[in-house]
Amino acid sequence: MKRTRKKKTNPLKEILLAIFSCCMVAFVLLWVHTNYLIHPVAGTSMEGSLQDGDYVLVNKKSPISRYSIIGFSMPKESGMFVKRIIGLPGDAMLIQGNRLILSIGDKEFSTTYIFEIDPRVAHQLSGKTTIPKDYYFVLGDHTAVSKDSRSFGLVQLSDIEGKVQYSLYPFYKLRPIN
């Protein structure tokens, strides 16, 4: 009969390998936690792009630009929001009663949007001619039902969690978000 040799294992090597593996897993989890967030979509305000009950991956470090979909919270509002950026810092604006005329692009008022806004928002923005530095005007894609900058005002950069990059759940909808 042939004897099989048992491979000698070095306990120190096994311990070091286990410690290294745990450190690598911890590093990856820390990196993911530092750079990403999973954010729920609640309500129908983003219908067309996202649905109620979807979960999205938010990149905390990705630069945001006009038409980016972002995740954010508002200091005086409950819950978290997912909306699309329409107005950027420096965009020209004009308040007329409860209407906001927003000019986007390089030339003043060559491309404009007109929005009916809440009287409190109109009062908050009165006297301003541009969107201030570090503030954004956001809208839901389903504007008829969306609670957005028209009702709660401009979103401050510090309240923005990041840019939505992927729809994660339900799994059959797994896709990048532009």
Automatic annotation (TrEMBL):
Record membrane topology: Single-pass type II membrane protein
Family the UniProt entry places it in: Belongs to the peptidase S26 family.
Top-level EC class as recorded in UniProt: hydrolase
Keywords attached to this entry: Hydrolase, Membrane, Protease, Transmembrane, Transmembrane helix
Cross-referenced PROSITE patterns: SPASE_I_2, SPASE_I_3
Compartment annotation: Cell membrane; Membrane
Annotated transmembrane regions: 12-32
Enzyme Commission number: 3.4.21.89
Domain Peptidase S26 stretches: 15-167
InterPro entries with a match to the protein in the record: LexA/Signal_pep-like_sf, Pept_S26A_signal_pept_1, Pept_S26A_signal_pept_1_CS, Pept_S26A_signal_pept_1_Lys-AS, Peptidase_S26
Catalytic activity: Cleavage of hydrophobic, N-terminal signal or leader sequences from secreted and periplasmic proteins
The name this protein goes by in its record: Signal peptidase I
